[in-house]
Write the structure tokens for this entry.
Amino acid sequence: MTVRTRFAPSPTGYLHVGGARTALFNWLYARRHGGKFILRIEDTDEKRNTAEAHQVIYDGLKWLGLDWDEGPDMGGDYGPYRQSERSQIYAGHVYEDGGSIRFRSPRKPVVLEDMVCGRIEFDMSNPATHPDMTIRRPDGSFIFHFVNVVDDIEMKLTHVIRGEDHLSNTPKHIELYNALGEKPPVFGHIPLILNHEGKKLSKRDGGSSITYFMEHGYAPEAVANYLCLLGWSPGENREKLTMEEILALFDIDKINRRNAIFDLDKCFWLNGQHILSMGFDRFVELAKPFVEKAGIAYGSEAALLAALTIVKPKVKHLSDVPDWIGFLFTEEFAFDPEAVEKSLKKAGAAGRLQALIAALTKLEDWSHASLEAALRETATTLGVKTGELVHPARVAVSGRSVGPGLYEMFVVLGKERTLARFARAASMAAA
RNA sequence: GACCCUAUCGUCCAGCGGUUAGGACACUGCCCUUUCACGGCGGUAACACGGGUUCGAAUCCCGUUAGGGUCGCCA
């Protein structure tokens, strides 16, 4: 039997991180077991059903690195994959017409063997606690519980991994499977993601939508990694994992049953870790769109790559890259008043910069090692600490007190531009 | 209210009958250092409570409390 899992979002206009994690777990389960991962859009509620809302789902999943084998955009053997196009299929399962239709519960105990929660027995005998559910409205449209079950049957899904908010609905779904003469799939109800107040993460909470991470310069692999860690652990205190590692280690049996609070701080940290360890090509791939969007006139590709190289070890948000490299491509960069005050306006700064200009002008080998040696030697000659040269030089060249390595900046700027910036700064510096 | 799930540092995750209760984020002290980061070495900080079972319980059972979820002609 081929494993078939699915992600069945409703197009609400944004992809919730909880939904994204559900998709991720389903995807992982399918990929681990050589199965298929299906995307089905539950758009029966037409008033919030727009093309843009569908696109947000596609974009979010693709961004996270999740691919699907069947879906509305690509078709498949069990389509259509939009519920709004499946009315005839649903109608084929009921025969009465007129008025709303309810499903009569057999009122027998229902036992659920959940992959995550274990065995749960539901007592369905009390109609007050478990009222017969409506499956079709008077206008002929069908209700979630019914279409969800029918679609899962029709699409031959074998495993349903979903949020724990569906746990209490599951006995109803099982009754439906039984009534339709079908064997229920294997269920796995994963814990929910909560906000800092311990409530369900809502639209208003920062980082509740995948779009947030796309826009704020997160690496997809970092977000996927973080999402996995909510409710799951590979053991051995491992945390930073690549997708390949997650795929190799992921095990649905090891998912815990506690709701987890979403911690943007930790996701941020993980993002920095991933950026630090990713290959340079990947970094360029992820950073370049932000550079383009910011409209930085970086000239040649080689110049951009040189800039990105010296900045990669420092970047925590890919969206910060333009700010990190901007000063390298223009003489119009801003001077941070505080940095100017602290380094350039310090007594003797102008003289020290002049000394540095003199020393570096003579330098033929404009390399990191040679530059460092020259600067240190100048400091010795002047009888000052290296910092007395380093700090004004940094501000002279970049306008601020924080940035990439000093000599790296010199090298990227080249001799001429570096010395010109020194000269300009010397004129604004204190004698 | 009824039903279901859950309960280890502020947060995430380990722990599955015998541990000085471990790791990570955050906070913080020191070191490294040309800035900022990174990194290294430390620190603060937890088994919700009450009963059992057991020689022994964070681990098993029951109860209480707390939190979450579900009880729609939303999905």
